[in-house]
Amino acid sequence: MSRTDEVVAGVRRMITDGELGPGDRLPVEKDLAERLGVSRGSLREGVRALTVLGVLDTRQGDGTYVTSLDPARLMSSLQFVVDLHGDTGARPFHAVRRVLETEAAGLAAHRITPEALAEARDVLEQAARTLAQDDVDHAAFIEADTAFHRIVAEQGGNPVVTALVEAIAGRTFRERLWRGRHEAGAEERTQRDHEAVWRALAAGDAEAARVRMAAHLLDVEETLPGPEATED
Amino acid sequence: MSRTDEVVAGVRRMITDGELGPGDRLPVEKDLAERLGVSRGSLREGVRALTVLGVLDTRQGDGTYVTSLDPARLMSSLQFVVDLHGDTGARPFHAVRRVLETEAAGLAAHRITPEALAEARDVLEQAARTLAQDDVDHAAFIEADTAFHRIVAEQGGNPVVTALVEAIAGRTFRERLWRGRHEAGAEERTQRDHEAVWRALAAGDAEAARVRMAAHLLDVEETLPGPEATED
DNA sequence: ACGCCCGGATTCATCGGAGGAATTCGTGCG
DNA sequence: CGCACGAATTCCTCCGATGAATCCGGGCGT
Question: Is the distance from CB of B223 to CB of B180 less than 8 angstroms?
Fold first, then answer.
C-alpha cells in the first residue's frame, strides 16, 4: 500500500468515524502529514485524489474542507470517465440512462411540483419556438432538451438517479448524441416525445410517463453507433 | 485552473486524440512534466488522481500505463464514494441498484449461457446447504448471495450496468445491508426469492425474471433505514 | 547451447526545503 | 464607523536528492 493510499484511507477513516463531517476543515498540510506519517508531497497526492473524487475541496490561502458529500458532487467524477469512451462505447451507457430516466419519469408523475411542471412547460414552449424559426438554432434546442430531461430526473426525487443521469448524459455525451441525429424530423420527433412525457406527468399517470420516456430514449438509442441489437 | 488540472486535461486529451490507447505507456515523468510545462510534483499529483479514477496504472520501476478503460475499472472508484455514505443514505443507492438489477435480470433471461445458469444453480444449492446447518454460517450465505447477484448482473450483458451494480452493492454496502436483516426467516426468504429468479431465468421468461428480482430487492429495501416510502 | 545469477540502468516513490500566490483577519487611519 | 493596508495563515509550485522495484543484458556454470 503506497503512502498516498494510506492518506486516502486515513481521511476516509476520519470521515466514517465521524471525526470529519461535511463542511469540516482538515488540519493544515504539515500537521496532517505528520499525523499520517507521510511527507507533504505524498499527503498532497492523496488529498488531490480525494479532491478529484469530489470528497475534499482545497482553497488556496484558506484550507482544505470536506465537501457536502452529496451524490451529485461525488458522481461528478464519473462524467470524466464516461466522456473518455469514444462513440462506439456510448450504447451501454445510454441503456443505463434510459432505464434510470424511465424510472425517474414514473416517480416524477406522482410527485412533480406545480412549479416544476410549469417550468417544464416553459422549456417545451421555448423549444417549439426555436423549431418554428426558419433557421433552427440547434444549440438552443439541445439546451432545451437538456433542461427538460434534467427537470424530469430531478423530480424523480432520487438524488443518486439524478446525479448518475447527469454524469452519463453530460455535455460531451449529448453533443455526440445529436451529432448523428440531424436527419430531417429528428428534432420535431423529440419535441413530440417530450410533450407526450409532459402530458403524462401533468396527468399524474406514472405508467404513461414511463412508457413515453422509455420510447423516447429508445428512439435516441437507435441512432447510436454500435451493434443495433446484437445481430450476430 | 491548477497545474494538476492541466495534467489531467492533458492526459485526457492525449487519450481522446488517440495518441494514447488502452495498455499504452506514458512518457517518463521527467519528459511528460516538461511537455505539459509542469514540475514533476504537479505531474505526479495529476497522474495519481487519474490512477485513483482507474484511468492510469503506475508500476514502480516499470512505467505508467493507460488501463483497459473498461467500465468495470472506471467505475471502481465509485464504490469508494458510495461507501462513504452512512446507513441513512443507503436507500436511494439501493433504489438504483434495484432498477438496474431488475433490468439486468430481464435481459439475462434471454441471453444467459447454460454455464452461467449451472453456476447460479450451484451457488443456490451451496447456499441451501449453508442454511440447512444447525449453526448457520452467515458470512458464507452473504458470499453466496453476492455471487448469485453478480452472475445475474453479468449475464445481463451490459458492462456498464454490471460495473455500476458492483460499485453500489460492494462489500461494505452489503454488510450494512445484512446488518439489519438478521430477523428470523430473512435468509430463507432471500433463498426462495433467488430460486424464483433462477427458475425464471432457466425458463427464459424475462418478465418473470424482472418481477422476481424487483420483488426481492424491494424486500431488501424495506429493511433499510430512512423514509419508508415518502409517506408525506 | 541452455539456464541461472548478478549488477547496471531505468523508472516510479518518497522525502525535505524554499519561495510564491491567495485568502483571512486584525489594525490603524480618515 | 467604514475602508485600506499589511501581517499571518494556508495551499500551490518548484527543485534536488535518495530509496525501491523492475527490467535487461552480460557472465558464468553445466
Answer: yes
